[in-house]
Amino acid sequence: MSRGRLRVGSDAELAGFRARSHLHDGRVVAWVGSYDVPVAVDAEVERTVPAALARRFGTDGFWERWTRAECVVKLTGRGVVDIVALMADDPDRDDRTGPEVSLSTVRLPGDIVVSIGRLPDEGSLRGIGRSAEDCSFACNL
Hints:
Layout (H helix, E strand, L loop, with lengths): L2 E7 L10 E3 L5 E6 L5 E7 L5 H7 L4 H15 L5 H6 L6 H4 L4 E7 L3 E7 L9 E3 L5 E5 L1
């Protein structure tokens, strides 16, 4: 089972972690925990969806769908251009992601939307729960 936390900090503070995502404001969100299975993280600050993307994909749940699609791309080796295909449909559908990708999404303080993707291990549990620290969230994936 993959266990760990999500931390928000500076690039320098979180440089040693493999699964990281850079926010548009310079902060970084990192998976701090087990890498017993491949893990990918993608994060975005909730903000107005750019007009061209809103017209094409809608605005309802956009940042959740975007971060989930990014995790699928990172874990499956698909190209960034495949995000368009994933955004056009539900990134959780097996025929889009393959049955091997598990995804979880959480909102952190400061309107940060984070998705975590992983490839399976036997007997894994999924879920994300808050820890006692302000910018740290306990995760069981």
